[in-house]
Automatic annotation (TrEMBL):
Upper lineage: Bacteria, Pseudomonadati, Pseudomonadota, Gammaproteobacteria, Lysobacterales
Subcellular location: Cell inner membrane; Cytoplasm
Domain ABC transporter: 2-235
Organism: Ahniella affigens
Purpose: Part of the ABC transporter complex LptBFG involved in the translocation of lipopolysaccharide (LPS) from the inner membrane to the outer membrane. Probably responsible for energy coupling to the transport system.
Keyword Transport annotated: yes
Listed InterPro entries: AAA+_ATPase (IPR003593), ABC_AA/LPS_Transport (IPR051120), ABC_transporter-like_ATP-bd (IPR003439), ABC_transporter-like_CS (IPR017871), BCA_ABC_TP_C (IPR032823), LPS_export_LptB (IPR030921), P-loop_NTPase (IPR027417)
Database matches in SMART domains: AAA
Name assigned to this protein: Lipopolysaccharide export system ATP-binding protein LptB
Presence of the UniProt keyword Ribonucleoprotein in the record: no
Location (main, coarse): membrane
Residues annotated as transmembrane: none
GO cellular component terms given for this protein: ATP-binding cassette (ABC) transporter complex; cytoplasm
Bilayer disposition of the protein: Peripheral membrane protein
Amino acid sequence: MLIAEHLKKRYKEREVVRDFSLLIHPGECVGLLGPNGAGKTTCFYMIVGLVGVDGGRIRLDRDDITTMPMHARARLGIGYLPQEASIFRSLTVEENLMAVLELRQGLKRDDRRRACQQLMADLQIEHIHKSQGQSLSGGERRRVEIARALAAKPRYMLLDEPFAGVDPISVAEIQNIVAHLKDRGIGVLVTDHNVQETLGIVDRAYILNAGEVMAHGKPKDIVEDKRVREVYLGDRFKLNSGK
């Protein structure tokens, strides 16, 4: 399990995160949502390793990863997909994947080649394997970035604003990708400003307000929470999925 316990963060005199706890099981998708200034981005970045923790701790199963840098967390199985494009623009899709696979110890050349072919098949990007990163559509780029992250064999994947700047077709592709990650037994944490799409894919969600968790539960329970509607969703918000 990936666990955050009583995290705190302060910037000079401003307390951004007061008391934040979170739990993600293997094979489930969890959302981290809240109004602007609620502290959700800071909480997300503390779990990723981009922002230091002033209080509390973060654990991956029995390992305390609170003070570990990002690359050490990655070796233990924490994958991260940033909002900004992270693909190598001048490399082909295949070369993007091989660049990561070549860093994995114990993989022979033939094993790397087979792993690359399998990842491209799983993410349905075989037909663009010779295309350069700069020529891909938003949805194609996201799939390649997910495939590249999977090449590192993560146990948990942290997705930062995956729905930002993508068209409706690409949104559906990202939803399918999250389902694919869950089928692999990978735990997923998503933070995004697109509340409708995010609640449509998560099993549970945490709603932050003023640096604390104000609500936690299944999407249906979140939407029906009176406080969440008053502070965040509004009276007219409706959940599209059957969750």
